[in-house]
Hints:
Chain A is an alpha/beta fold and 312 residues long. Chain A folds into two domains: 9-224, Rossmann fold, CATH 3.40.50.300; 231-295, Alpha-Beta Plaits (2-Layer Sandwich), CATH 3.30.70. Chain A has ten helices and 13 strands. Chain A has helices at residues 47-54, 72-82, 98-108, 113-122, 138-150, 168-184, 196-202, 220-224, 270-283, 298-306; strands at residues 9-17, 22-31, 36-40, 62-67, 83-86, 156-160, 188-193, 205-210, 213-218, 231-238, 253-257, 262-267, 287-295. In chain A, helix 3 (98-108) packs across helix 4 (113-122) and helix 5 packs parallel to helix 6 (168-184). Chain B has 374 residues and is an alpha/beta fold. Chain B has two domains: 18-45 and 174-370, no CATH class; 52-155, D-Maltodextrin-Binding Protein, domain 2, CATH 3.40.190. Helices cover 59% and strands 9% of the residues of chain B. Chain B has 14 helices and six strands. A six-stranded mixed beta sheet of chain B has the order 2-3-4-1-5-6. The mean pLDDT of chain B is 86.
Amino acid sequence: MENMHTPVIEVKQVHKSFKTVHAVQGLNLTIGKGEFVALLGPNGAGKTTLVEMIEGIRHPDKGEIRIMGKTWKHHEDELRHLIGLSLQETRFTDKLRVYETLRLFASFFGLGKERVEEIIELVALEEKRKAFVGNLSGGQRQRLALGISLLNKPKVLLLDEPTTGLDPNARREIWAILRKLKEQAETSMILTTHYMEEAEQLCDYIIIVDHGKVLREGTLEQLLKGEEGEKVIEFSLKDGPETLPPTNGKIGEMQWNGMQRSGKVTVQDMNTQLPEFMEYLQQNRLHLQDMECRRTTLDDLFTTLTGRHLHE
Amino acid sequence: MNNRLSNHQLWQLTLSYSRELLREPGVLFWGIVFPILMSLGLGIAFTQKTDVVRKVAVIDASVDSTSIQHFLLTEAQANPEVAADSFRYSYTIPDKQMGNTTFLFRETDWKEAMVLLKRGQINVILTEQNGKPEYHFDPRNPDAQLTYIKLSGMLNGKVVNTPQDNGEIKPLTLAGTRYIDFLVPGLIAMNAMMSCMWGISYGIIDRRSKKLLRRMVATPMKKTNFLIAFITVRFVMNFIESALLVLVTWLVFGITIQGSIPGLLAIFMAGNLAFAGIAIFVSSHTANTEVGNGLINLVVMPMMVLSGIFFSYHNFPDWSIPVIQKLPLTMLADGIRGIFNEGLGMTDIALPFVILSAIGVFFFSLGLRFFKWH
């Protein structure tokens, strides 16, 4: 990744193990000012462990982490002022109101009412300012958590699965807040997620991790332009057989799931290969139930790399 | 309020804990109303001398004409409204000073009498052998002993009545000698312990389990401010609870503080400090509220039983008393009791004050060393 200035976050050869698990195995990461980076991977990929090490909550067994050139060991106080974060699951005090909760956290940074008002507006909780935290919906709670992480206008924002478990609307509301932040280009962000859509929508750079290692990284375009075809035909067949007859090789690589009677073809050129595919079906007297042509996605890429889906 | 103070994290932390506490109706009930109700209930039960009822089972009284049956039929009153298989006969020994004693008799068989005895409804079983009454009771039960003494006296026709106001009995109704005087200081001490242990320990463990603790220390919040605010709110709360308890029992029972008020405040503070320290220590590591429950009970239960909150610990075996007296709750309860009832001053409570404070500081620093913030 190219950086115009000194990197905001530098992670070098970081390892972290727990009793039986190698959670993070030699990860490297460099993030510049204003960049939004997604750590994409299934549950248990090591995303949270990595983020918690960057947050200074855990210490790496090996390797080095620097934030704006500073380390947790020597500059903890300064770094606490620089970063904003939202943990995967935090339950704020139910019996405090939204305003009071923000006021409490603002006081930790020496900030007052003015900043709290700005945040309430930013995360669109004006109507809920007097509501008890215990009475908020999941989306409102996450907006509050995000608001708290933005109180100190952080140079580095670390969000651990900020939209997991939210409905699509609530998710989009969070995205809108983050896009606004991106426009200001003052904050660098790392976001962990297992929603590829989230990574695609918000981040300049995507790092796919699994079992504590980087599988692939790059911009969305770079990732999807690989040995992998650019388009995918997904189809299902009426009374489809257990196995399909072999293709003539012109169609592209075909995957078939006999149990679900559905399959996937990756194609380079839709104009020539789609008619070839239709002809193949006709020749073998196979009848389509359903068909969809689409771009390859990160999930396709992940499946190719690991044989699993992101959500598994 | 000026902005610098109201934006200060210590103030905001204190404010948020107070709000949390006051918004929990249960906290107010268990912290304030319940101890007052308990003191009223126990105070009334043990302070007002009402008639004493002693129930006795009589075996086979109806078989032939015995002296017991003679007594029941001639001396005692039979209540026709009460069923024959219940406590039908009664006999009252009037006594103005110690309260009347009423004996209730029930005719029954051995089997039934044993059941009644096991259930604690009676403590003496009366039979007759060769024209002489026999008394069956547990000789180690003082209450049964007293029933026996009074009952045998009555049946022998000797001590039917206590001498009427002959000046032999001088009732002690001085403040400081009644049960309520014993109870209220104990309740204050117990409240301090319970409130610190449950309020502070449970509060911290709960925050840890909700990952709130971890979220808070990921900011520039000072960890000491977090703990100071927690402890301060508890102290203030405990003080208000105790003050209300004293106020109500003063109004109702006229209890008084005979000793030094500054001394009382000092020992109260030291006791709170001791329990706050222990609470921090207990909650230093676990994030599991059920484990926390167990740990808190482990600390609280033995002291509740041993420290003489409701009844004097001098009933425990002699060898155990020096140990019991060194428990923090005993030290606090004895200190407060001494000031309330014996008129102790500052110098008298200096030693427990120092020991309790030291316990607090010791466990606080130990807890802080092991404290798991993440």
